[in-house]
Write a structure and sequence with these properties.
Radius of gyration: 16 Å
Structural class: mainly alpha
Largest sheet: 3 strands, antiparallel
Number of helices: 9
Distance between the termini: 23 Å
Shape: globular
Helix content: 40-55%
């Protein structure tokens, strides 16, 4: 059991979710609503905790597919991933649905999840979808409302990546160029260019 993940046993998903939610002190979305824009040290600490949990799951061929600030719980200063109800297990390039319900989180879902048909999704690198979602969570921790990314007028930008760059430029005075570069690499529209 990794301290940065909540149990993924399908039979215990609901019980585990409710017990973890009851025991958790808060979730990341609530923290962001109270604090607003987090300082870089806090962003990096949370990113480290969540990344550990995601690596633990990915090493076991499990993808979350519903990462968002509401699903990042905190207890004792440790941030952990919860709500594995939309998770998929990857076996020999085949996907096994752990729970059939598919979450829809505009702004947090990778573009390829929203735009492809079922047959194309079977070929999708779901691990990179989680990376995209985590990058969007980092953007949210930096004080950018995810809705702003979705609502950037198409006339103002040529692409998804242009929209992200426009918004990231608005916070470049508050964060290091290394963090902003990492965010860009995590949230690339083309998953073949996305950092893994």
């Amino acid at each position: 059991h990794n301290i940065n993940t909540v149990t993924i046993n399908p039979a215990a998903v609901l019980f585990q979710l409710f017990s973890e939610m009851e025991l958790a002190e808060s979730n990341l979305e609530r923290i962001i609503k109270v604090k607003g824009q987090l300082i870089e040290r806090d962003v990096l600490g949370i990113l480290k905790d969540v990344s550990k949990g995601l690596i633990f799951a990915h090493e076991r061929k499990i993808v979350h597919l519903d990462l968002k600030p509401d699903n990042i719980l905190v207890k004792g200063g440790i941030f952990m991933i919860s709500d594995w109800g939309s998770a998929l297990r990857v076996k020999n390039k085949e996907l096994t649905v752990i729970k059939s319900q598919k979450a829809i989180n505009p702004g947090y879902n990778a573009p390829e999840l929203e735009e492809q048909n079922y047959e194309e999704k079977k070929q999708c690198n779901y691990f990179l979808c989680d990376v995209y979602s985590l990058g969007m969570i980092v953007i949210r921790m930096c004080g950018i409302e995810i809705k702003r990314i979705i609502d950037v007028p198409k006339a103002e930008v040529k692409s998804h990546d242009d929209a992200l760059n426009l918004l990231l430029d608005s916070i470049k005075e508050s964060y290091s160029s290394k963090l902003l570069s990492l965010i860009r690499k995590m949230t690339m529209y083309d998953n073949m260019n996305r950092i893994s």
